[in-house]
From TrEMBL:
<keyword id="KW-0170">Cobalt</keyword>
<dbReference type="InterPro" id="IPR027417">
    <property type="entry name" value="P-loop_NTPase"/>
</dbReference>
<feature type="binding site">
    <location>
        <position position="328"/>
    </location>
    <ligand>
        <name>NAD(+)</name>
    </ligand>
</feature>
<feature type="binding site">
    <location>
        <position position="40"/>
    </location>
    <ligand>
        <name>substrate</name>
    </ligand>
</feature>
<feature type="binding site">
    <location>
        <position position="449"/>
    </location>
    <ligand>
        <name>Zn(2+)</name>
    </ligand>
</feature>
<feature type="binding site">
    <location>
        <position position="361"/>
    </location>
    <ligand>
        <name>Zn(2+)</name>
    </ligand>
</feature>
<feature type="binding site">
    <location>
        <position position="22"/>
    </location>
    <ligand>
        <name>Mg(2+)</name>
    </ligand>
</feature>
<dbReference type="InterPro" id="IPR031322">
    <property type="entry name" value="Shikimate/glucono_kinase"/>
</dbReference>
<comment type="function">
    <text>Catalyzes the specific phosphorylation of the 3-hydroxyl group of shikimic acid using ATP as a cosubstrate.</text>
</comment>
<protein>
    <recommendedName>
        <fullName>Multifunctional fusion protein</fullName>
        <ecNumber>2.7.1.71</ecNumber>
        <ecNumber>4.2.3.4</ecNumber>
    </recommendedName>
</protein>
<feature type="binding site">
    <location>
        <position position="319"/>
    </location>
    <ligand>
        <name>NAD(+)</name>
    </ligand>
</feature>
<feature type="binding site">
    <location>
        <begin position="248"/>
        <end position="253"/>
    </location>
    <ligand>
        <name>NAD(+)</name>
    </ligand>
</feature>
<keyword id="KW-0511">Multifunctional enzyme</keyword>
<feature type="binding site">
    <location>
        <position position="433"/>
    </location>
    <ligand>
        <name>Zn(2+)</name>
    </ligand>
</feature>
<feature type="binding site">
    <location>
        <position position="128"/>
    </location>
    <ligand>
        <name>ATP</name>
    </ligand>
</feature>
<keyword id="KW-0520">NAD</keyword>
<keyword id="KW-0479">Metal-binding</keyword>
């Protein structure tokens, strides 16, 4: 791409004649308040004649040269929506220009209309020289068979518009343009993307690639409407889907459940060319990831998280696993997904208390790294606390939540990319978890994870304050911010001795030494606190009891 400062299109739309590139493109540009350019119209202005006239006077090769030159110039000088002519992406020079545009962060959107619908629309209007001479439908279909695989390959965004009105199609395109993408670099495994936005699940097939023939769709009953959509998308893309419903929440993270899934995969002959898709909260994505990590020692998987906590934390980072009688997440594997699709539409059915719990991990990411998260939480605390999935989509709060999700995922991606197996930096993601996990266990996992972590962060702040690493104001800030979000900041459910024994079994402990991660001076600055004085550990515990 050219130097910074020049304008580039928000998106380029490609597709077959009649797909709706012009009609839908104009709708999107109006919805987004952006300028729109149609390459065919621009070319006619430039050459001073209609495209059919140019074709007949100079022929297709000359036309394609004019077309690819204009496209290259527009990609480096226009900041709106840009729709290409049907045949444009078949020209190698245009393919190179589009590849450069994508490398620079651009979106090439393949508008995948129902072939029959598009063909009928293309042939009703005339004025398309590529359809002249003979059976227009047959010619259209021949072009489709040539062009579809090429469009599918060169586009980095795919939008199916089968049966959609222009407005519905435009909404889908706009969602794709507005979606947020976090790239997770992994030193010892393949990089992957976390896509966040309404309709992100539409990326399922491209994210899985064409290699898997069969998909084990692992999900739970409360998210049936979302797994139904995943199943439909997979089947429309030609995959064979094995539907696997597992018990909800923590009941699904057991070796018994895992064994049942392994039995299913064995009976149905799943091989390494097949894949797993997990749809649900963090418990479901943990189990799905564990199945993918263990079946034949590893097959591809994509997570489709449906709770806020799963979107910002559980689905990303490659920690997969199940619980045992001895405790949570004690069996599992570091195994990274092929990608994560955080589809905001799934939050429409998320209960308020489960949403609030997820804010615990969002706030944690603000305390340990991105302090802008804290400012956003402060500024929108009341709306966030009053979250109502049924009225959430399309409101300003949706953009706030999308920003929070993106920022929180970026914090996790930063830590995971540098330290996949939690040798040091990644331990900072465990802020509040030493006490948090102890509370979960003492409460027999009746407390939700994010709520326990909230109390755990207040504990860690009290401990850091007692040892002079942060001031009292910052401890008070922990309490006021977390409480304003509807999160708990104290706990009275057990004795210090019982909690201490559990903390000594925390994965950060070394030998008989406790280890914590705490703030060092202020938000965004972390340190390891090894073997803190026993009296401070106990006094901090007293301070979280009300
Ligand atoms: N692997 C990791 O890095 C990681 C990180 C954090 C947490 N976790 C794990 O994640 C789990 C917690 O995740 P969670 O908070 O999502 O809990 P969860 O998976 O138990 O889901 C909470 C409840 O919300 C329901 N639900 C989820 N999405 C819904 C939706 N869109 N509509 C309606 N209901 C919905 C679920 O069915 C469940 O009943 C724990 O097991 C924790 O250990 C893993
Ligand atoms: N989703 C849609 N539903 C109904 N009509 C559509 C849709 N998309 C496009 N059209 C109509 O089909 C015709 C061709 O659309 P157009 O945008 O010119 O296609 P393209 O630019 O992809 O060749 C136009 O009459 C347009 O109004
Ligand atoms: O990806 C990670 O490192 C994390 C995994 C989870 O903790 P545990 O590993 O303690 O379960 C999660 O709760 C924490 O927010 C970050």
């Amino acid at each position: 791409m050219s130097d910074a400062g020049t304008q580039h299109p928000v998106a380029v739309i490609i597709g077959m004649m009649g797909a709706g590139k012009t009609r839908v493109g104009r709708e999107v540009s109006q919805m987004m308040g952006l300028p729109f350019k149609d390459a065919d119209i621009e070319i006619e202005h430039e050459v001073g004649m209609t495209i059919p006239e140019y074709f007949s006077q100079y022929g297709e090769p000359a036309f394609r040269q004019v077309e690819s030159d204009l496209i290259r110039r527009t990609l480096d000088g226009f900041g709106g929506l840009f729709a290409l002519g049907g045949g444009a992406p078949m020209t190698p020079a245009t393919q190179d220009a589009l590849a450069d545009y994508i490398d620079g962060g651009g979106r090439v959107i393949y508008l995948q209309a129902d072939p029959k619908e598009a063909m009928e629309r293309a042939n009703r209007g005339g004025g398309r020289p590529m359809l002249d001479g003979g059976d227009a439908d047959a010619r259209w279909m021949r072009l489709y068979e040539q062009r579809d695989p090429v469009f599918d390959r060169i586009a980095n965004v795919h939008v199916r518009t089968h049966g959609s009105t222009p407005q519905m199609a435009a909404r889908k395109v706009m969602n794709m343009i507005e979606e947020r993408v976090v790239h997770v670099g992994v030193v010892s495994a393949d990089d992957y993307n976390v896509r966040i936005g309404e309709g992100a699940m539409n990326h399922l097939a491209p994210m899985l690639g064409d290699k898997p023939a069969r998909i084990a769709l692992i999900h739970t009953q409360p998210v049936q409407r979302h797994s139904d959509r995943a199943r439909a998308l997979l089947r429309q893309a030609g995959y064979e889907v094995s539907d696997i419903v597992i018990p909800d929440a923590e009941a699904g993270k057991t070796v018994t459940v895992a064994n049942g899934v392994w039995e299913r995969l064995g009976a149905e002959g799943f091989t390494r060319s097949d894949a797993v898709v997990g749809v649900g909260g963090g418990a479901a994505t943990d189990l799905a990831g564990f199945i993918a990590a263990t079946w034949m020692r590893g097959i591809r998987y994509v997570n489709c998280p449906t709770s806020l906590l799963a979107m910002v934390d559980a689905s990303t980072g490659g920690k997969t696993g199940i619980n045992t009688a001895a405790g949570k997440n004690l069996v599992g594997s570091f195994y990274t997904p092929a990608g994560v699709l955080a589809d905001m539409t799934t939050l429409a059915s998320l209960p308020n208390d489960i949403f609030i719990e997820g804010l615990g991990e969002v706030a944690k990411s603000g305390f340990i790294s991105d302090t802008e998260i804290l400012r956003i939480l402060e500024g929108h605390a009341a709306e966030l606390r009053a979250f109502d999935g049924a009225s959430f989509l399309g409101t300003p709060l949706e953009d706030v939540v999308a920003e929070l999700i993106e920022r929180t995922v970026r914090v996790k991606a930063k830590h995971v990319s540098a330290d996949l197996k939690e040798a040091g930096l990644r331990e900072f993601l465990n802020y509040g978890h030493t006490m948090g996990h102890a509370i979960e266990k003492m409460e027999h996992f009746r407390w939700r994870h994010g709520n326990a972590v909230a109390v755990g962060m207040v504990y860690a702040a009290e401990l850091a304050c007692l040892l002079g690493h942060i001031d009292r104001d910052l401890v008070d800030y922990h309490r006021s911010l977390l409480a304003s979000l509807g999160l708990p900041t104290s706990w009275n459910g057990g004795s210090f001795d019982d909690v201490l024994a559990i903390m000594h079994r925390d994965k950060k402990a070394r030998g008989n030494k406790l280890r914590f991660v705490v703030l060092d001076g202020g938000p965004g600055r972390m340190m390891h606190l090894d073997d803190p004085p026993a009296d401070a550990v106990e006094e901090a515990f007293r301070r979280i009891q009300h």
